[in-house]
Give the backbone structure.
Amino acid sequence: MRLRRLKLEDAPYMLEWMHDVSVVNDIDKNFLNMTIENCIAFINDSIGEKYIGIAVVDEDDTYMGTIRLKNINHVDKSAELEIIVRNVAMQKGYSIYAIHEMLEYAHTHGIQKVYWSVAPENRRALKFFDKNNYQRVNFENLCVNVEYTGIKAEEFVWYLELLSDNVYGSGKLQKKIAVLTYPVKHRKTFDVLSLLKANGYTDVMVCAIPFHYQKKKFPIYQHRPEMNYSIPDIEIFCKNLNYQYKIGQLESFKIETNRLVLVAGAGILANEFVKEHTIINAHPGYIPDCRGLDAFKWAIIENKPIGVSTHLVGEYIDAGFVLERRKIDVYLSDTFHSLAQRVYENEVSMLVEAIEKYDMDLMQMIEPGNSEVHKRMPENIERILIRKFEDYKKIHAKIT
């Protein structure tokens, strides 16, 4: 059994449990009136900024149920859990497996407490959670913001799981990570390695490939963070983190095929290496709308969504198997550089978060279509960038 992204072919199985009285009889929602169209709509909108719904499947990839985090709150670091499985999956370990994996996922993404509710008449669910030693709490002791009214919320039985490193951080100790970079002080590499260490990843190999590219021109508007020369030399930094450090050409590193490769900085990778390894890149553009170089700038000029995407390096440039696409909110108070910084921060965090998303098989195939692969923005276009940015804000700014 495993977790993966919901697929459209799961819809008939989803409708099956919705119309199974033995499954939904004691659930506080009228699933019996749901249609196949409702299932398809849920699948198409199963992952968002404040929620993620995924499938638990058997060894043949057959849908057995859905587990979901909703009301994700990064301020109080909490989320609400929902799970339901088909009748054929009950008492076979799917629920306990899915819950543990989802709690691992939540812990990885900075969530410290996960809570859920059960209707008091749902004795089967209460017996399951109690038997597996999940802790009941009074509603007033949850100390989280939930969407229930006070009276209704108190009618439910509430559970709370506090996600400690002792219980939910151990999986990271076994994960093998390689980070491709340059043998120079490099801000993105510094931030990625710092976040890997902060999140408990210990088996990290940093592979520095010398580069000989020399910029032919400098941009008018710098939208990437400065190198920040107060950061230590990359080799010394790796030593301080207790991470392996290697310098040389790509083929000399002998990176194992079971080691997940993150791109912090690299040129064009050899086809053979790409075919043999799983390589994740964080692209500072919303795939497939903005591909190639200067994606943030081109999004403004072309009035496209500003975003960040994590994807597997493969056949297409900035397209193909995508793990996550995230649109970045724009505010009237934003400057060009404040928004660029927010794009960069999401780029770094999404690259590290992609490690767990890859394990949960949340990828979707996004073809490049007719979208252009941009080159560096020419100077004559870049000169109108700030004026275009002010126009862009008027159209896309989020009202707060």
Observations:
- The longest strand covers residues 63-73.
